[in-house]
Amino acid sequence: MNNVADRAATAEPAPAVSPDFGAQLEAWRLRMEDALDARLPSASTVPARLHEAMRYSVLGGGKRIRPALLFATAKTLGLSEDQVEGAACAIELIHVYSLVHDDLPAMDDDDLRRGRPTCHKAFDEATAVLVGDALQPLAFQLLARDPALPASPAIRLRLVDLLSEASGTFGMAGGQAIDLGVQGQVLDIAQVEDMHARKTGAIIRASVLMAAECAPGLDPKAYEALNEYATAIGLAFQIQDDLLDVLGDVTTLGKATGADRERDKPTHPSIIGIEASQERVHLLHGQALTALESFGERAAPLRSLADWLLSRHY
Fold first, then answer.
1. How many angstroms separate the CA atoms of 224 and 238, rounded?
2. Stated pTM of the model
3. 81-102 vs 48-58: helix crossing angle, rounded to 10
4. Cβ of 241: how many Cβ atoms within 10 Å?
5. In whole angstroms, what separates CA 97 from the centre of its chain?
6. Lowest mean pLDDT: which of 97-106, 147-156, 305-314?
7. How confident is the model at residue 246 (pLDDT cuts 50, 70, 90)?
8. Do the strands 112-113 and 116-117 form a parallel or antiparallel pair, or are they unpaired?
9. Strand ranges (DSSP E) for 135-201?
10. Does 67 sit behind a cis peptide bond, omega within 30 degrees of 0 on the bond before it?
11. Paired residues of 113 in beta bridges
12. d(Cα 65, Cα 25) in Å, to the nearest integer?
């Protein structure tokens, strides 16, 4: 086999995602567009340019995967979407802030995000920095003030703790710092997986566990099962992203491909190859599904989401 297409063709077929679940994902995505729009400051409110840039970045499309994980977990636990919508908005605001900052010239220096110019290209670098600075506190303000989230101060505090840990030096920010520091270096696969567990996996794990925190009295074993599911899915998601950077198409992904190779980033495909990376995704997918066995049919939304994450091409 001499090319990427040949190697990709050897991969085990991804599980099929039902049309019904596809419709559910779209419903959750549309719900998030409305929810985020309602919680962002108006573009006409002073400082108008900053608020316009915040709305440009947050409402500029996206799959809303992290809110979908939160909604799917809530559904598994018998919670309504209304009960967790504020937390879903908070985690998406943190995710978007990280994208805006990651795209900056001082970091990944990307020109395209979600099929259009990145925030610093559409506005300017200083405004992009301020967009991230503003989205982060807004996320935590939602956790403190959203009226539909559980009223218990202990639960609110736990939500803040989960999101702050996932986005701090032991999570997303720490993972990004490691990523920036190891470009051009040779890492083993354990080091790469530790970096990915922080940079990407921590926020995905928090998406699941924040919903679990909104279900008072949840059995500790059930909580740990959700933790195992989220940990496996978080790593699988990043490996799939690395594969798409090699195998994907810019018109489908909405961002440039081949960036990892150009920056000499250590990734699963660069260290263990495409086939082994695909096998690792399938192994993690199996671990995630095994973790959900105790939930029975209640966990169908989380199983379907795991299948979709494995089969996605964008």
1. 22
2. 0.87
3. 110
4. 17
5. 12
6. 305-314
7. confident
8. antiparallel
9. none
10. no
11. 116
12. 9
Report the C-alpha dihedral over residues 181, 101, 88, 23, rounded to 10 degrees. -90
Q: Which structure tokens are listed for 149?
A: 């989230």
Mean pLDDT of 164-184: 92
pLDDT tens per residue across span 273-293: 999 999 999 999 999 999 999
Going by pLDDT thresholds of 50, 70 and 90, the confidence category of residue 251 is low
CA distance 142 to 39: 8
The tens digit of pLDDT for each residue in 110-152 reads 999 988 999 999 999 999 999 999 999 999 999 999 999 999 9
Scan for tokens 């986005």, then name that residue: 167
How far, in Å, CA of 69 to CA of 7, rounded? 31
Determine phi and psi for 230, rounding to 5 degrees: -65, -35
Among the listed residues 207, 235, 203, 227, the one whose alpha carbon sits nearest the alpha carbon of residue 71: 207
Per DSSP, the three-state class of 257 is: coil
Q: How many residues does the chain have?
A: 314
Distance CA 291, CA 247 (A): 29
CATH architecture of 17-311: Orthogonal Bundle (1.10)
Helix (H), strand (E) at residue 42: none
- pLDDT at residue 213 above 90? yes
Which pair of tokens denotes residue 298?
A: 């209640």
Token pair for residue 26? 């779209």
